[in-house]
């Protein structure tokens, strides 16, 4: 299997690094820095084909950051205007990058009553659509091109790279990735179990909403794309364990975003907790890279302000250096 440091190869074996028999498909090595470039391109091309997006047209979208960054690049490349509605949790580096591409970014600062921001972001999208006649909302939450892009590319690429694939762990935000992967495996490789992984406090798998700090995974609104019966199982991971795993991976030379820490932590727990794991490869996705999280997940002050219980662990880590 290729190593992490061959720039042409995007697969890493974590077995030696952190003792988990798990492979990572790294999706952050493109101009948008994340997996969300795939649904972004698919949704824009479908809108162009349908005549819904005209030259110079205005796109409006809600994003936790990565889809917004991907659409910013596509809009700049193709001459569209783009207005992105995000929220307080979006990485400042992502906001700055979107603005550098010419995107107008609106940041929602008042959370919904249950602590998320999605309902507030979508209300703002509605207002902006009304204020800008002729503008287009691609709507990643309901647009089937979102999950279809992963059915066509992400899932088939994994199946090709891992002929002995048995377990595939996929994070859930809009649930486009996990739904596309699960449907592809059900259609083509039904012996592969797709396990959904999300942050505690997300409603994606039917559990109650609670405040979350890290952008990427999770939702405060029930997902449109996901049919839970397509998944073999689901796992919820506390954000504190996301941070622990991101930092553990960093100490092996792998700097990833929060959702990678979540899915790896979820996969570790799921695999360790089962006596009936069958032989074959276990794979997960690293949806983005860690550099845009240096001011949050990898910043001790940011972490201890939000997760005071981690303060001692961070001190021990420093002392061990
Ligand atoms: N990881 C990261 C870093 C993301 O930005 C997103 C999308 N918000 C996801 C995972 C989840 O992907 P999806 O929307 O396809 O569920």
UniProtKB/TrEMBL annotation:
Needed cofactors: pyridoxal 5'-phosphate
Documented EC number(s): 2.5.1.47
SUPFAM superfamilies reported in the protein's UniProt record: Tryptophan synthase beta subunit-like PLP-dependent enzymes
Protein name stated in the entry: Cysteine synthase A
A single GO molecular function term of this UniProt record: cysteine synthase activity
UniProt-listed InterPro entries: Cys_Synth/Cystath_Beta-Synth, SbnA, TrpB-like_PALP, TrpB-like_PALP_sf
Tryptophan synthase beta chain-like PALP domain ranges (all copies): 14-276
Gene3D superfamilies: 3.40.50.1100
Keywords of this entry: Pyridoxal phosphate, Transferase
Subunit structure: Homodimer.
Catalytic class of the enzyme: transferase
Lineage start: Bacteria, Bacillati, Actinomycetota, Actinomycetes, Micrococcales
Key word Transferase present: yes
């Amino acid at each position: 299997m290729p190593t992490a440091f061959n720039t042409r190869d995007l697969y890493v074996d974590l077995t030696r690094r952190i003792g988990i028999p798990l492979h990572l498909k790294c999706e952050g090595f493109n101009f948008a820095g994340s997996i969300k470039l795939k649904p972004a391109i698919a949704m824009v091309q479908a809108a162009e084909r349908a005549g819904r997006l005209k030259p110079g047209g205005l796109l409006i979208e809600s994003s936790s950051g990565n889809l917004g960054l991907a659409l910013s690049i596509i809009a700049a490349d193709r001459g569209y205007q783009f207005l992105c509605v995000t929220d307080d949790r979006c990485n400042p580096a992502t906001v700055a990058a979107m603005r550098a591409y010419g995107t107008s970014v609106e940041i929602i600062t008042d959370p919904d009553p249950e602590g998320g921001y999605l309902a507030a972001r979508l209300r703002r999208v509605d207002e902006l659509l009304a204020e800008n006649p002729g503008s287009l909302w691609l709507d990643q939450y309901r647009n089937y091109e979102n999950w279809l892009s992963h059915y066509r590319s992400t899932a088939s690429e994994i199946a090709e790279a891992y002929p002995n694939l048995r377990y595939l762990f996929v994070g859930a935000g809009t649930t486009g990735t996990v739904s596309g992967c699960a449907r592809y495996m059900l259609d083509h490789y039904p012996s592969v179990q797709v396990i959904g992984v999300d942050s505690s406090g997300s409603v994606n798998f039917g559990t109650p909403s609670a405040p979350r700090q890290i952008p990427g995974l999770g939702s405060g609104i029930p997902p449109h794309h996901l049919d839970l019966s397509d998944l073999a199982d689901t796992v919820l991971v506390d954000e504190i364990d996301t941070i622990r795993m991101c930092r553990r991976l960093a100490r092996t030379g792998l700097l990833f975003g929060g959702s990678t820490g979540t899915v790896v932590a979820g996969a570790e727990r799921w695999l360790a907790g089962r006596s009936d794991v069958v032989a074959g490869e276990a794979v997960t996705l690293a949806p983005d890279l860690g550099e845009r999280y240096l001011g949050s997940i990898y910043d001790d002050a940011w972490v201890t302000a939000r997760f005071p219980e981690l303060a001692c662990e961070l001190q021990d880590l420093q002392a061990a250096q």
